[in-house]
Each structure stands twice: as structure tokens, then as C-alpha cells.
Amino acid sequence: MAEYTTILDDLTFPIRLGIHPHEVEPQRVRLSVRMTVDYDRAPSADRIEEVLDYDFVREGILEMAAGQGFALQETLVDAVAALCLRDERVREVRVRSMKLDVYPDAAVGCEVVRRGSPR
Q1: CA dist 54 to 46, 84, 92, 93, 107, Å?
Q2: In Å, how far from its chain's centre is CA 9?
Q3: How far is CA 47 from CA 64, 85, 91, 99, in A?
Q4: What would the pLDDT profile of 52-71 be if each residue is shown by its tens digit?
Q5: Quick check: 8 and 62 in contact, CB under 8 A?
């Protein structure tokens, strides 16, 4: 068994996220994803088919952002975690979201850790 951490860091995009009237318009959110991934063996052929291709995570997040949006950051990070765990090789995922423009002097965020089914 070989364990790796696959990281998608600081993906920044506009999304409708929030409960306040001024949050009806999309706002900038930064998302980071860390996936602990188990493979039967270490990659040997240096080919993408041997490992988790993080394109599906980025594309899935951007599809979510283009949708109706979310009221809560907790709901957003849970949805992203569920997306990652669709790949049975992902043993654990940590998703962190940060609203960048809520306050002039700070970002506000939420982080969740979810575990997949043991292989």
C-alpha cells in the first residue's frame, strides 16, 4: 500500500455564499483541499492513470460555484468533501473555505475533515 497527499490549494472563485442580503451577489471564496489517497502500490510508470487526477475536484468545485450557491460555508465544504470521497482511493479529505471580502481586516472560514470507507 502507498499513501500520498494530493493537494488543491488556494482555488479562488466567485460564488453565492451567505445568509445576508448583501451576499446575494457572488463573492470571492478561496478553497483548499487535501486528500489522503491510498494506492495499491507506488506509481511506477509515471502516468496519470496510476494516480488520482485532481482535475475532477477542481471542475466539480467550479460547477458548484456556477450553481445556485450555498447559505453556509459548512454546507459548501461538506459538498466538496463528498465530491472527493466519490473516489474510493480517498481515505480522508480536509476542505477549507475562506470568504475573502466579508471584513476589511480578516477572512472568515470553515474547515471540515471527512473520512471515506476503509479499503
Answers
A1: 16, 9, 15, 13, 26
A2: 9
A3: 29, 22, 21, 36
A4: 999 999 999 999 999 989 99
A5: no
Position 22: which residue type?
A: H
Count of other CB atoms within 10 angstroms of residue 10: 10
Q: Which residue has the cell 499513501?
A: 3
Question: Looking at the domain that runs over 2-115, which CATH code has it been given?
Answer: 3.30.1130.10
Which stretch of DSSP H or E encloses residue 76? helix 73-85
Q: Mind listing the pLDDT tens digit for each residue in 66-88?
A: 998 999 999 999 999 999 999 99
CA dist., res. 34 & res. 95, Å (int): 7
Please report, for the chain, the start and end positions of each structural domain, with discontinuous segments joined by +: 2-115
pTM for this predicted structure: 0.95
Indicate the SS3 state at residue 56.
Answer: helix
